[in-house]
């Protein structure tokens, strides 16, 4: 029976019976169908849905929200959902920006909110490995680790909302990724519940050669194959020696090349960002400030942070400085990078103040690109948005051996709610076209969810189709976050 | 589907008809030469008279992916199993043939497709030998950083298929850390590019799901890998530790201090003697046996371990192991040898070498100076391939590489040693270290009165050792792979997450034609 068949006959589902069974598993206090809870779980942070809500279109919430306390309860709940072909959304912080955690269509959805499963199960300080439940909110985990002298080293801007499970399910990248990698690089093993209620544990080893690394079937699958309930994660030790450096370049090209050469030399900066000259901020806000000339607008600053043993940090800074000097960069000292660090959670692009304005639109495009393609993509993205009157702010981050990621926040105002959504969709269309033409890969950091513009880029390569084929085997009833990542709705 | 019951001749005829340009050999010399890899268990079988008990149907040499796609289509239709073959230097029976199977040698697909110096990437075909790829990169001032001791007799495809590790893995990572994307011709016949040059993208990381698949899901035909500037500077150094546990603790601290040494090797008491041995002999030892006897004779510490007495000693390994334990401090007055190497940018190498030295000295190391480090580097590929003397004398040698997080490492070391001790003389070194754990590389030599008994002893040894590794919470393989020799331990290794592997297998190899039996999946397989 396909999921579509189920969709045509939801009225026959015995809802009171399902409610009774769920209650038996999680307890009455951990199940809700109250509007207070279903409305709260109706939309995630996908700007398109937020814009629709703002325009008065109320989104249908799930029929049930459950808060299981352990993997065994998740297994029971999934078995019930499988039996009745109830679509399930694994829910963490609800901060998906691509609709990965919100119900869709008219079906009776079951949201499994994982946040009660938030305990540290074991801490192996000698190996610097923590075993922790996946419902823990990022900042809580980090604070608990800090209290014991450790850090996870994973700091996305969603730190205060997202859960570990959400990060793992989207293979999230944080602002320290240039040094510590993305969350999948920090993960050594997982416990997950499959759609039929089976629990799987992938065994922990520093490295192994015993076939494919099976945890990778669930990491990045955005809840379409099962629910990750716990993970073993690599840690880093506190306290750490930290230093900063800032450099100004005439163009993006030299800034990017200085960063590329540094990474190639083996430097592992804690943070590496290329962004607009912060001095331009004044002209943004003060209408009386002199209009910056083209040269000022073209300048970019490279902000760096370093962490580790002091002597090695100094060696890394020396290597970077020599590359910067060869490329004509101007040293700005520690202050600009330190200032950014001090405001790292606040200084990010804040969408909410934009989106509360009537008829505004905003989002964050994010694309992976190789070093060779970076400057071209950067300029093309900037020009394509500017020529349509949309505001943008571009930032280069997540440096790796082979390339970086280019983030592009965009925003604007339209004449009506319909036009705002149309402009929003048009902006994504433009981003998609620019990426296609200049070798950018959309959705590099925060997953694909239901965001068609993000998914279409990858769709052509057929890899999402591979996921659908695996899903048909592991989830024949099609209950796990159906419709996400291009799977059958 | 014509079915497997058809005669070899009719199947060969249909193969030639389906792929008229494919190079095919049915010569008995090729079929025997390609029947086995370097799994020592296979050598014992040969001695027991099973020369090539199940010779393959034929050996084929495809030249491009379209030929492979057609070959897979033919194999699916005819129900014939395909065995991907690189250089045949695997030690786990990963490319062992079987009656009626087709060996697919990929070594004609050996081009470097492109080097992208600006993106620090290389794209190469799977059949290229490791040292040819490295040479080609060196010409551009680059290095892959992958130096397994098999470098000269192994291919890129073999590395990717088995999650291979090189001697500089502590800095450059294992092959799965280097690979960014692969082209796979799956058992369905479809051509899959697993990733993109920005590593990952949306959905599961398919690269990580195909790397290490040992040919069970399809042929790995090309790979894109990260490359680095060839190191401008290198520092090598030797240290001594009284006990292996002290050495491990020092390495743990070193790896957790935020440093990235290129080479980390710690030898246990007896392996330390061998590691130093080349300095006196000055040439490659003929075999592990000769290295043992030669060295021990040279030192005069264990006179009973003379060549003639060797067989006796190896047949009573529990005594030999105990004697070595007792005599270890005398055998090697310097205790356990530890070699640490640093390479890369000069400033960063110097800073790390100084910090690393301080860290190791704080952990109680004895400074042995540079020479032990350079000595190791000179002899890094001096692996003996002349094992025949040893095997014909009735003995056997093999290696086993396990790994665990630091908290279990000493239990793993003791557990596996104890498990092997009744069957063979055993020593170990620790050669791939990470902040969270380390691998252990056991070498062992045993003996028996006849080949049949040798084979039995060898199998009992492996079962005991694998069980001990699993019991101690370690993985049964760090970088050699599973092949067929450890396939029966995959459930102990992975528990019920094996069902994820079976799902991958049934998705990408629905007819079980791809290397059936490796990794404990598709065991029945098509003949």
Care to give the gist of this entry?
Chain A is of the alpha+beta class and 489 residues long. Chain A is 37% helix and 21% strand.
| CATH fold-level assignment of the largest domain in chain B | Vanillyl-alcohol Oxidase, Chain A, domain 3
Mean pLDDT figure of chain B = 87
pLDDT averaged over residues of chain A: 91
Give the number of domains of chain A. 4
Estimated radius of gyration of chain B:
23 Å
Q: Helix amount of chain B, in percent?
A: 40-55%
- Figure out the total of helices of chain B: 21
Q: What is the domain total for the residues of chain B?
A: 3
The Cα radius of gyration of chain A reads: 23 Å
- CATH architecture descriptor name of the largest domain in chain B: 3-Layer(aba) Sandwich
Spans of chain B of at least 5 consecutive residues whose pLDDT stays below 50 are 278-308
- Tell me what the CATH architecture of the largest domain in chain A is: 2-Layer Sandwich
Task: Tell me the β content of chain B.
Answer: 15-25%
Structure annotation, total helices of chain A? 19
Strand-pairing-aware structural class of chain A: alpha+beta
Major beta sheet summary of chain B? 8 strands, antiparallel
By CATH, the superfamily of the largest domain in chain A comes out as Uridine Diphospho-n-acetylenolpyruvylglucosamine Reductase, domain 2
CATH class annotation of the largest domain in chain B:
Alpha Beta
Would you mind describing this structure in some detail?
The complex is a heterodimer of chains A (489) and B (527). Chain A folds into four domains: 3-115 and 465-486, Uridine Diphospho-n-acetylenolpyruvylglucosamine Reductase, domain 2, CATH 3.30.43.10; 120-237, Uridine Diphospho-n-acetylenolpyruvylglucosamine Reductase, domain 3, CATH 3.30.465; 242-342, Alpha-Beta Plaits; 352-446, GMP Synthetase, Chain A, domain 3. Chain A contains 19 helices and 19 strands. Chain A has helices spanning 3-7, 15-26, 35-40, 47-54, 71-84, 138-147, 164-170, 177-180, 183-186, 252-264, 281-285, 294-298, 310-326, 335-342, 352-355, 371-386, 417-438, 452-459, 463-474, and strands at 31-32, 64-66, 88-91, 110-113, 120-124, 129-133, 150-151, 187-193, 199-201, 227-234, 236-237, 242-249, 271-276, 300-307, 330-333, 360-370, 391-397, 403-413, 441-442. In chain A, strand 8 and strand 9 (199-201) form a beta hairpin. Chain A is globular. Mean pLDDT of chain A is 91; it is low at 1-11. With 527 residues, chain B is α+β, with helices and mostly antiparallel strands. Chain B folds into three domains: 8-106, Uridine Diphospho-n-acetylenolpyruvylglucosamine Reductase, domain 2 (2-Layer Sandwich), CATH 3.30.43; 112-229, Uridine Diphospho-n-acetylenolpyruvylglucosamine Reductase, domain 3; 233-471, 3-Layer(aba) Sandwich (Vanillyl-alcohol Oxidase, Chain A, domain 3), CATH 3.40.462. Chain B has helices at 8-18, 28-33, 40-47, 65-78, 130-139, 156-162, 169-172, 175-178, 206-210, 244-255, 269-281, 288-299, 307-315, 317-331, 346-362, 371-378, 388-392, 406-420, 451-471, 490-494, 498-508; strands at 23-25, 58-61, 82-85, 102-105, 112-116, 121-125, 142-143, 179-186, 191-193, 218-226, 228-229, 233-241, 263-267, 336-344, 366-369, 395-405, 425-430, 433-434, 437-447. In chain B, the strands form four sheets. In chain B, strands 12, 13, 14, 15, 16, 17, 18 and 19 form an eight-stranded antiparallel β-sheet that branches. In chain B, strands 5-6-10-8-9 form a five-stranded antiparallel β-sheet. In chain B, strands 1-2-4-3 form a four-stranded mixed β-sheet, with no helix packed on it. In chain B, a hairpin with a 4-residue loop joins strand 5 and strand 6 (121-125). The chains are: A alpha+beta (489), B alpha+beta (527). At the A-B interface, strand 9, helix 13, strand 16, helix 18 and helix 19 of A face helix 9, strand 11, helix 15, strand 16 and strand 19 of B.
């Amino acid at each position: 029976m396909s999921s579509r068949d189920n969709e045509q006959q939801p009225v026959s589902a015995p809802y009171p019976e399902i409610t009774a069974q769920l209650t038996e598993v999680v307890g009455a206090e951990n199940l809700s169908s109250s509007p207070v809870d279903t409305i709260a779980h109706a939309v995630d942070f996908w700007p398109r849905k937020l814009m629709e809500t703002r325009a008065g279109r109320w989104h249908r919430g799930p029929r049930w929200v459950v808060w299981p306390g352990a993997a065994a309860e998740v297994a029971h709940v999934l078995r019930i959902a499988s039996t009745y072909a109830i679509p399930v959304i694994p829910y963490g912080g609800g901060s998906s920006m691509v609709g990965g955690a919100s119900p869709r269509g008219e079906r009776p959805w079951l949201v499994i909110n994982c946040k009660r499963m938030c305990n540290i199960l074991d801490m192996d300080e000698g190996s610097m490995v923590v075993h922790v439940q996946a419902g823990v909110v990022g900042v809580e985990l980090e604070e608990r680790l800090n209290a014991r002298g450790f850090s996870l080293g994973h700091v996305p801007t969603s730190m205060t909302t997202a859960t570990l499970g959400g990060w793992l399910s989207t293979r999230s990248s944080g602002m320290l990724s240039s040094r510590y990698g993305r969350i999948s690089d920090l993960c050594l093993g997982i416990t997950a519940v499959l759609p039929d209620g089976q629990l799987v544990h992938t065994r922990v080893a520093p490295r192994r050669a015993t076939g494919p690394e099976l945890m990778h079937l669930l990491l990045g699958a955005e809840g379409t194959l099962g629910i990750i309930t716990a993970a073993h994660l690599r840690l880093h030790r506190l306290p750490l020696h930290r230093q900063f450096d800032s450099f100004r370049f005439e163009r993006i090209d030299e800034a990017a090349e200085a960063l590329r050469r540094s990474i190639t030399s083996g430097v592992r900066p804690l943070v590496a960002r290329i962004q607009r000259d912060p001095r331009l901020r004044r002209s943004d806000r003060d209408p009386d400030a002199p209009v910056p000339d083209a040269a000022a607008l073209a300048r970019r600053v490279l902000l760096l942070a370093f962490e580790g043993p002091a002597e090695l940090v100094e060696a890394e800074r020396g290597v970077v400085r020599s590359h910067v000097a060869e490329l004509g960069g101007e040293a700005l000292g520690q202050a600009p990078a330190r200032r950014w660090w001090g405001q790292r959670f606040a200084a990010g692009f804040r969408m909410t103040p934009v989106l509360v304005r009537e008829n505004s639109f905003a989002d964050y495009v994010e694309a992976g690109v190789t070093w060779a393609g970076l400057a071209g993509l950067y300029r093309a993205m900037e020009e394509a948005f500017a020529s349509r009157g949309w505001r943008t702010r571009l930032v280069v981050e997540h440096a790796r051996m082979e390339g970086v990621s280019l983030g592009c926040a965009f925003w604007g105002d339209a004449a009506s709610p319909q036009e705002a959504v149309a402009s929003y969709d048009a902006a994504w269309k433009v981003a998609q076209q620019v990426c296609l033409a200049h070798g950018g890969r959309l959705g590099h950091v925060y997953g694909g969810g239901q965001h068609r513009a993000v998914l279409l880029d990858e769709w052509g390569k057929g890899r999402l189709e591979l996921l659908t084929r695996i899903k048909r085997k592991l989830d024949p009833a099609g209950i796990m976050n159906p419709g996400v990542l291009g799977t059958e709705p | 589907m014509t079915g497997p019951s058809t005669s070899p001749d009719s199947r060969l005829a249909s193969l030639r008809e389906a792929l008229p340009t494919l190079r095919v050999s049915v010569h008995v010399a090729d079929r025997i030469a390609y029947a086995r890899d370097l799994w020592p268990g296979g050598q014992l079988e040969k001695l027991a008279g099973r020369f090539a008990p199940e010779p393959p149907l034929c050996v084929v040499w495809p030249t491009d992916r379209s030929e492979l796609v057609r070959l897979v289509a033919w194999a699916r239709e005819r129900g014939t199993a395909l065995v991907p073959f690189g250089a045949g230097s695997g030690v786990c029976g990963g490319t062992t043939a079987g009656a009626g199977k087709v060996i697919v040698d990929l070594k004609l697909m050996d081009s470097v497709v492109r080097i992208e110096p600006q993106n620090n990437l290389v794209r190469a075909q799977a059949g290229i030998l490791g040292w040819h790829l490295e040479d080609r990169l060196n010409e551009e001032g680059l290095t892959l950083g992958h130096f397994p001791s098999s470098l000269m007799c192994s291919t890129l495809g073999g590395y990717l298929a088995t999650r291979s590790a090189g001697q500089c893995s502590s800095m450059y990572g294992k092959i799965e850390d280097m690979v960014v994307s692969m082209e796979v011709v799956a058992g369905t016949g479809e051509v899959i590019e697993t990733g993109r040059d920005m590593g990952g993208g949306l959905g599961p990381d398919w690269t990580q799901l195909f790397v290490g698949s040992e040919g069970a899901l399809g042929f790995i035909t090309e790979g894109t890998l990260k490359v680095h500037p060839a190191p401008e500077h290198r520092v090598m150094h030797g240290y001594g530790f009284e006990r292996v546990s002290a050495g491990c603790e020092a390495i743990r601290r070193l790896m957790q201090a935020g440093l990235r040494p290129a080479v980390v090797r710690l030898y246990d008491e007896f392996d330390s003697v061998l590691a130093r041995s080349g300095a006196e002999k000055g040439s490659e030892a003929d075999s592990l046996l000769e290295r043992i006897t030669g060295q021990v004779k040279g030192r005069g510490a264990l006179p009973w371990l003379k060549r003639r007495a060797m067989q006796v000693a190896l047949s009573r390994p529990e005594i030999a192991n105990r004697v070595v334990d007792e005599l270890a401090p005398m055998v090697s007055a310097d205790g356990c040898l530890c070699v640490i190497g640093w390479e890369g940018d000069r400033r960063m190498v110097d800073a790390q070498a100084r910090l690393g030295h301080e860290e190791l000295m704080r952990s109680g190391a004895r400074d042995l100076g540079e020479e032990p480090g350079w000595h190791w580097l000179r002899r890094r590929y001096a692996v003996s391939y002349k094992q025949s003397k040893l095997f014909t004398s009735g003995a056997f040698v093999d290696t086993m590489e396990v790994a665990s997080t630091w908290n279990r490492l000493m239990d793993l070391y003791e557990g596996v040693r104890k498990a092997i001790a009744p069957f063979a003389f055993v020593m170990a070194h620790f050669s791939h270290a990470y902040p969270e754990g380390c691998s252990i590389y056991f070498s062992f030599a045993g003996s028996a009165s006849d080949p049949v008994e040798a084979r039995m002893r060898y199998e009992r040894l492996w079962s005991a050792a694998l069980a001990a590794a699993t019991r101690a919470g370690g993985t049964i393989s760090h970088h050699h792979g599973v092949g067929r020799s450890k396939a029966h331990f995959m459930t102990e290794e992975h528990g019920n997450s094996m069902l994820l592997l079976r799902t991958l297998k049934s998705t990408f190899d629905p007819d079980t034609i791809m290397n059936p039996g490796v990794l404990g999946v598709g065991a029945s397989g098509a003949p």
